[in-house]
Amino acid sequence: MASVNPFNLSDSEEEAERRPNETVDTERSPSDGAPGPPPGNPFSPPADAEPPSLLLSSNRTSPSGEGISASAAATSAMAGSADTRVSVDVIAAQLLRDQYILTALEFHTELLEAGRELPRLRDYFSNPGNFERQSGTPPAKDQVLGPGGPLNRAGSISTLDSLDFARYSDDGNRETDERVAVLEFELRKAKETIQALRANLTQAAESEVPSQERKNFKSSPEIQEPIRPLEKRALNFLVNEYLLKNEYKLSSITFSDENDDQDFELWDDVGLNIPKPPDLLQLYRSCGTPLPSPRDTADVSVGVDFVDLPGNFEPVLLKLSPAFQQALLSFCRMCSDSRLGAEVSRIADSEESVMLMLGRCLPHIVPNVLLAKREELIPLILCTACLHPEPKERDQLLHILFNLIKRPDDEQRQMILTGCVAFARHVGPTRVEAELLPQCWEQINHKYPERRLLVAESCGALAPYLPKEIRSSLVLSMLQQMLAEDKADMVREAVVKSLGIIMGYIDDPDKYSQGFELMLLSLGDPSERVVNAVHQVFIPAFAAWTTELGTLHTALIPSLLARIEKLLTQGEHGLDEHKLHVFLSALQSLIPPLFAVVLQNAPFTSRVKLHGDIPAIEVTRFPRPASPLQDVATIIGSREMLSALLQLYDHQLEHEGTTGWESLLWVVNQLLPQLIEIVGRINVTSSTCVHEFSRFFWRFCRTFGKIFTNTKVKPQFQEILRLSEENVDASAGNGILTKATVPIYATGVLTCYNQEEDRKLLVGFLEDVMTTLSLSHAPLDSLKASFVELGANPVYHELLLTVLWYGVVHTSALVRCTAARMFELLVKGVNETLVAQRVVPALITLSSDPEISVRISTIPAFGTIMETVTQKELLERVKMQLASFLEDPQYQDQHSLHMEIIRTFGRVGPNAEPRFRDEFVLPHLHKLALANNSQSVENKRIDIATQLFEAYSALSCCFISEEVMVNHFLPGLRCLRADMEQLSPEHEVILSSMIKECEIKVENRAMSDPQGSMSIASSLVGEDAKTKFLSKMGQLTTSGAMLANVFQRKK
Questions:
Q1: The whole model's pTM is what?
Q2: Is the dihedral of CA 127, 132, 133, 134 positive or negative?
Q3: Dihedral (CA of 642, 643, 647, 650) sign
């Protein structure tokens, strides 16, 4: 007997069919004439022998398959040599009594498969209590155990089908194997129960129409029975399938939308155990046709001419009439009137017929495969689509491929794309265009982004295998449409990458302008991931194509420069910084391919030798590329080739010059001067623009190398930035030293290399700029921009402090003032150790400067320290210095000093340490407000009132203790209101409202929580008062200049 696993459901039916010819009927009584075991049966042990262990390795696993089954062996063992047969119940009782549990289980399984269930075994194995051990120790040998006793391990029983090759059983007292076997049996029983319940549910769902109504319909044929839910869902599925097969796709979409509660991609959605019927066409063709007779069924299903049987086999038949033969054979129950029956009865006899059969069957197989495993069908679908002779069937199969998974994940899309590429390689460009591209086009507007993503990725993957005309027309248009219209970032990102691949294969020069517009369009995309894809894939590929066309430095780069210049011309009153970033970032991504062009068109290219000792390229020689496509070594071809070219490049620049080197001469004579001219036109106060151009020049100089930077770049900047007072137009303030050229040269060119001579050059340049601007009374914006950009990197903090110390000890008071103001910019980024050791000593030195203007210039820096530093000792030193400014009699009439202090308090007060604000800032503001009431010079009174109003407006948002509120904040506001009554009644109204709310809040706080603190702006009583206060604040500007103008009008 072939091996049978009693726990395997799939074997049960086959075993049940084989068993009548292979097993012994253990239930037939002697009176039935059942032959007993032959006298010489080697499997019949003596009657007094113990039950055998049923080692199936000697019978069930024999090559001939003629061994006896476990049940037969057990029967033989129990019966001995007697001729009479023992009932199966006795055998079962004996097996259970002797604790042959696994043998009893297999005996029970075989009886079930034969359709004869034994109650004793059923009750035993369905009771979990029989398998729970009460003790971990085995019973004594003479202990008699009933069926419910603890299980002892029998000898190892290995069957071929139950053998687990991952582990082998050893004799002993291990319960794991037995427990696993029992659990497998229980699992199978549970599955059978679930299947039966599904069948019952389906029957119940099909019979929703009451029985009385069904009788009425049968008795009155003219009354049509209403459609059942399952029938409706089945018909809907068949209708939708018919529409799709016959190219009524719009109708199918509409039909799907009208039945949105049904999934038309999965037949299992129709019902629980409902088999899928034939399609509508087959149902129509069979409509009205009488069912085939049993005789016809037998003829078709057998379908084999006896003459054609292999081996010249001739069936032995009696001399019967043909009609009798057909009637006799009709009792073989076979079915060929269904689609599947017809396929089963028609065996493929050639490769072509196999393809035809797969083409017919796959559309029915796919919907019944789990979604998570459908990618396993991809090879089958692709092979069939490649080799099938019918175009319509191939189209259907490729449609199935692209619709295989509703929302394919990344791995599934990669598998489908791999299959598409394999298909394209096999069938060639013509069929790819005719068969694959239409599938992409159909799904370009699919509702699921994963499906549109598959289309975008397919266009790139298939680009090398498409006809060049289609590649540069239809595919390019598809991707352009998706880039402009698709709302999903990940789809547009894939579109950009596919466009880059397309650019690598386009050979039509007329498409250059379209490619350029696509580059600008994608660079302006709001999604960062799309823009990154442009720089990583599209621009390098587009640059490679323009290099081949010879238009990289003659068309592409000049076009971007022209757009930047136009933007600067149009943006005199407001530059569009985003567009500037777009164009400049594109230029920056073109630096590596431009350098590759310079190397490949150099005079020394014919002298390149790749053999011998080629020095390795330094890791820091080039900036880190954004992607492999921006790596100069990748563009050139290899690191060895690049290293050899770099060696000759440096030698050529240092010793032989640039004569005849057209590409490099274009960079030196046209590109660099145009870039420097553009830099001089950008707004120096725009930190974003300064940073963008600084990064551009840094990457440019690092890519072209140190020799190029020292001999070609720096001289052109130095020629323009002649450090002399004549080069600064003090009256107009538009000299070149006041432009963005200074910070971009300092931070983009002079910081490229960090050796000692480079740092000295940077320090000397900044010192000269500071001196020149100070002595010329020119704006310091360019110097401030340099400090801000360099201060963002801690590496340059020591260098900047060195520059400032040069200013601290300078002989000119103007330079010392500039140095004092520069400290304010540097404090926020420098660590507290440097502040304590380098910044504060320098400021203390300047605060005792003979020139009062220098001392006043230190106040903003001191204020910034109070705002940012946490060291108490440091804060006390700063506090003492500020107190000396406020309390020293020599400063009593210093209007400029008081203005600077009030401005600084208003700026740093909200962010300063609360104790410093309550004990120092607010009391001194109160004193200044009180002193301003008696100011006789009206202009000075206006200035002080202006700054006080701004300071109190800023501090009103802080939480202030009740004591400080009563003693300093409210009195200071009242003093300020006294000034405003005469100078600006509108501002006086606002101050009155603030004072009133503060007084109410103090009263309420005194009654509820005397220890609390309060914020004026956040604690206004009543929504009306708050709305009134904020609206009036919004109507006024707190700009000092505007308030001064208001006061002037009131004179």
A1: 0.64
A2: negative
A3: positive
